[in-house]
Write a structure and sequence with these properties.
The chain has two domains: 92 residues, Elongation Factor Tu (Ef-tu), domain 3; 144 residues, Nucleotide-binding domain of ferredoxin-NADP reductase (FNR) module (Rossmann fold). 14% of the residues lie in helices and 34% in strands. It has five helices and 16 strands. A seven-stranded antiparallel beta sheet has the order 4-3-7-1-2-6-5. The protein has a seven-stranded mixed beta sheet with strand order 11-10-9-8-12-13-16, sandwiched between helices. The relative contact order is 0.15. It binds flavin-adenine dinucleotide and FE2/S2 (inorganic) cluster (FES).
Length: 259
C-alpha cells in the first residue's frame, strides 16, 4: 500500500466536549486511500523537534475532508489543540493494517469502545452501514465530560448504549456492565473493540464466553510507525506483533492484553 508523507491544511479544530476535540484537515490523497482501523502519524510541532516523534491517531471520519478525534493529554496532543484554520499539518499515512470486514453470515456488529477508543468506530460504521447490518455501539467513559452527543453514529443507524464510571450519564460502571443488555449469536455477531487494555481484556473474555469472533484496534506508544524500531511490539498467541504494521487491527482472540 502506498504510504504518503504530506502537508495538509487545517479546516477546523473544535472541542466537542470537555475531554475530546475533533480536527478536520484537507487531505485529498488520504481520502481516497484510508481504510477503517488504519492510522496516521502526525508531526505535532512544525517549528521545533519537541516532541521529537510523530504521534499516531486513528482516522475518525473521511468525507470531503479527513477528521481525527483526540484527547489533549500530553505535549503533542496539546499542541494539536492549538491548531487553527489554515495552519499546516505534517501527516504520514495511511499506516497499519485495517479492520477485516465481518464474515458473510454476520447480521449484527457490536462496537465496544472506551474513551478515546471511540476514534476508529465512526469511519467503521460509515462503511458497515452500507452492508445493512444491525450496528450497536457500547461506549464507556470516565464521566459526563467524556461523552458527546454521538449524533453521527445515530445518523448511521447505530444503536448507542453508554456507561460511565461515575454514572453521571448512562449506566453506572464499566462498559462491560452493558454486555448483558445485548442478545448476541455466535453465528451472526461480530465484535470490534478499541480502548484501554483492561476494557479490551474484558471484551475478549465476554467474546470467548459467548463464542464471538472479532477484532481489536490495539494501541501502544510508537516511535517510527513503520515497522522499523519494533518499539510498538505487543505479545499475541502467535508471537510478538507490531501495532504499527501487523496492527492496529488484530484478531481479538490472539492479543495478550497486559492490563
Ligand atoms: C494506532 C493508534 C491510534 C491512536 N489513535 C488515537 C486517536 O484517534 N485519538 C487520540 O487522542 N489518541 C490516539 N492514540 C493515542 C495517541 O497517540 C497518544 O495519546 C499521543 O501519542 C499522546 O501524545 P502526547 O505527546 O500528547 O502525550 P505523551 O506525553 O506522549 O503521552 C501522554 C500519556 O499517554 C501515554 N500514551 C501515549 N501514547 C499511548 C498509547 N498509544 N497507548 C497508551 N498510552 C499512551 C503516555 O505513556 C503518557 O502517560 C492512538 C495511539 C495509537 C497507537
Ligand atoms: S513504532 Fe516502530 S515498529 Fe512500530
Amino acid at each position: 500500500m502506498e504510504q504518503l508523507q504530506n502537508v495538509y491544511k487545517v479546516i477546523d479544530n473544535e472541542q466537542l466536549c470537555p475531554q475530546f476535540w475533533r480536527l478536520t484537515f484537507d487531505a485529498p490523497a488520504l481520502t481516497k486511500t484510508i481504510l477503517p482501523g488504519q492510522f496516521i502519524h502526525i508531526r505535532t510541532n512544525e517549528v521545533s523537534l519537541e516532541p521529537f516523534f510523530r504521534r499516531p491517531f486513528s482516522v475518525y471520519r473521511v468525507q470531503k475532508y479527513v477528521e481525527i478525534f483526540y484527547e489533549p493529554i500530553g505535549p503533542g496532543t496539546r499542541l494539536l489543540a492549538l491548531k487553527k484554520k489554515g495552519d499546516l499539518l505534517d501527516v504520514l499515512g495511511p499506516l497499519g493494517t485495517p479492520f477485516v470486514m465481518p464474515p458473510e453470515a454476520c447480521k449484527q456488529v457490536l462496537m465496544v469502545a472506551g474513551g478515546i477508543g471511540i476514534a476508529p468506530m465512526l469511519i467503521l460504521s460509515d462503511v458497515l452501514r452500507k452492508k445493512k447490518l444491525e450496528l450497536i455501539l457500547l461506549y464507556g467513559g470516565r464521566s459526563r465530560g467524556h461523552v458527546y452527543p454521538m449524533q453521527e453514529f445515530k445518523d448511521n443507524g447505530v444503536k448507542v448504549y453508554i456507561a460511565t464510571d461515575d454514572g453521571s450519564i448512562g449506566a453506572k460502571g464499566w462498559v462491560s456492565t452493558l454486555f448483558d443488555k445485548i442478545p448476541t449469536s455466535s453465528r451472526t455477531t461480530f465484535i470490534y473493540t478499541c480502548g484501554p487494555n483492561a476494557m479490551m481484556k474484558a471484551v475478549q473474555a465476554f467474546a470467548a464466553r459467548a463464542g464471538l469472533r472479532g477484532q481489536a484496534a490495539c494501541e501502544e506508544v510508537m516511535a517510527c510507525g513503520l515497522g522499523a524500531c519494533l518499539g510498538c511490539s505487543i505479545p499475541t498467541t502467535k508471537g510478538y506483533k507490531t501495532v504499527c504494521c501487523d496492527g492496529p487491527a488484530l484478531n481479538l482472540d490472539e492479543v495478550i492484553f497486559h492490563a
